[in-house]
């Protein structure tokens, strides 16, 4: 007690965390209030994981102030498409900061609307989950969302996963 908190060098922290291999997912939601038909929003995520089996809960981490953060403050339902190795271009496209509008990002991608969330769900994804936010937890420069899983499907269960390791997308061999 009384000692100043120790701080880690941020470059060291970043380097250490890049050594954790992660699956890659596309988090999507539909904003019904943006324009006459609404707008779809997407975000590449490696901070996605299962939290609980009973009840079925998952978590995602979104950057504070991002379009996805702003939308999920008022839109409780969202979807997660777990990406296959053939969807690397989609992961890269939705990971860019300061990018073009989300409407253009979805233009040439095969997707359908999730029946529970209204969010875009990618064709060819390894698994698909539709969720409803149960809890928002502020965590530094991100917010952690804990979502109850409303549906879970494995349409391409035999596909191979896209992973992210040491700052690059990779394939399992």
What features would you describe in this structure?
The strands form 3 sheets. The protein has a 7-stranded antiparallel β-sheet. It is an alpha+beta fold and 173 residues long. It is globular, with a radius of gyration of 17 Å. The chain is 16% helix and 42% strand.
For the biggest β-sheet, the strand order reads 3-2-6-9-10-5-4
- Helix coverage percent: 10-25%
Strand content: 35-45%
Round the mean pLDDT to the nearest integer and report it: 90
Compute the number of strand runs: 12
Radius of gyration: 17 Å
Distance between the termini: 49 Å
The sequence of SSEs as H and E is HEEEEEHEHHEEEEEE
Query: What would the principal axes of the Cα set say about the shape?
Result: globular
The biggest beta sheet reads: 7 strands, antiparallel
The oligomeric status of these chains comes to single chain
Structural class: alpha+beta
DSSP summary: helix tally:
4
**Which regions are unreliable across 5 or more consecutive residues at pLDDT < 50?**
none
């Amino acid at each position: 007690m009384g000692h100043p908190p120790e701080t880690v060098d941020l470059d060291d922290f970043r380097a250490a965390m890049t050594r954790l291999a992660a699956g890659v997912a596309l988090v999507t939601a539909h904003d019904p209030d943006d324009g006459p038909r609404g707008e779809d929003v997407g975000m590449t995520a490696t901070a996605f994981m299962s939290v609980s089996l009973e009840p079925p809960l998952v978590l995602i981490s979104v950057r504070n102030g991002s379009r996805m953060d702003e939308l999920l403050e008022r839109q409780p339902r969202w979807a997660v498409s777990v990406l296959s190795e053939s969807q690397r271009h989609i992961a890269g496209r939705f990971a860019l900061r300061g990018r073009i509008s989300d409407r253009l990002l979805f233009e040439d991608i095969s997707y359908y609307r999730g029946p529970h969330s209204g969010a875009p769900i990618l064709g060819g994804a390894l698994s698909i989950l539709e969720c409803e936010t149960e809890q928002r937890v502020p965590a530094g420069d991100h917010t952690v969302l804990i979502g109850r899983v409303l549906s879970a499907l494995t349409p391409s269960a035999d596909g191979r996963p896209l992973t992210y390791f040491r700052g690059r997308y990779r394939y399992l061999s």
